[in-house]
Each structure stands twice: as C-alpha cells, then as structure tokens.
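The authors assume throughout that readers already know how a fold can be written as discrete tokens. The format is easy to grasp once an entry is in front of the reader. For illustration, here is how one protein appears when written out as sequence plus structure tokens:
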Amino acid sequence: MYSFKQFLSFAAATAVIGALSFSASAATFSHEEVKAALEGTISKVKASIVALESGADKDTVADLVSDAKQQQKDIENNDLDVKRQHAGKRLNTAWKAARGGDLQLAGESLKDALARYEEMQKIYVSSH
C-alpha cells in the first residue's frame, strides 16, 4: 500500500513538472518565427479576400480562411496575444459565414481581420 502511494505521488509530480515544462517551451518562438507567422497570416487572409472578390465558391473561401486560422496560431508573442485572439475571432466568423454561404459577412470579417493583423505586424516590428 505504501509503495502504491509513493507511485501515485511520483506520477502526479511528474505530470505537474511535464505540464510546466511544456508551457515554458511552447512560448519560446524566435523573432523570425513570429514575424514569419504574421506575414504568412496576412498573406493567407489577403488570398482569402482575393478569392472571395473573384467569385470563388463558399468551400474554396472556407478552406482558404481555415488555412489562415491555422497559420495565425503560430503568432506566439505575449504582447500580441489579446490582439491575436480578437483577430482570430474575426477569422472564425469569416470561416463560419463562408461555410454557411454568407459571403458578404465573410468578406467583412476577413477585411476586419486583415486590418487587425496588419496592426499587429506594425506593433511587433516597431517593438523588435
């Protein structure tokens, strides 16, 4: 019984240390990686807007927005986190609207997201 309690204590301590180590290592993105993520996200949002304005179907627009949503996850910077979350919400609105066929709302949300990501890029470049 005593060794089982030791085992549980050891397992719990290992899990806590592992969780702390992961979150510490997850936040170590270099300047180049954050800058590339910002540029990639902006590029993908612009591609989504171009496709939308060119008359692409809703599935194509939704796929392009989904790519932008994935790319923006790599913008790991504590100073930009809240702004990234707000811009990400606009991408999510655009994605849902595109999937639902409301391309006007998708376009408005994409343009709003683009403005937010471009603002984030200016802030990041000026502070680094």
Observations:
- The first helix runs from residue 2 to 26.
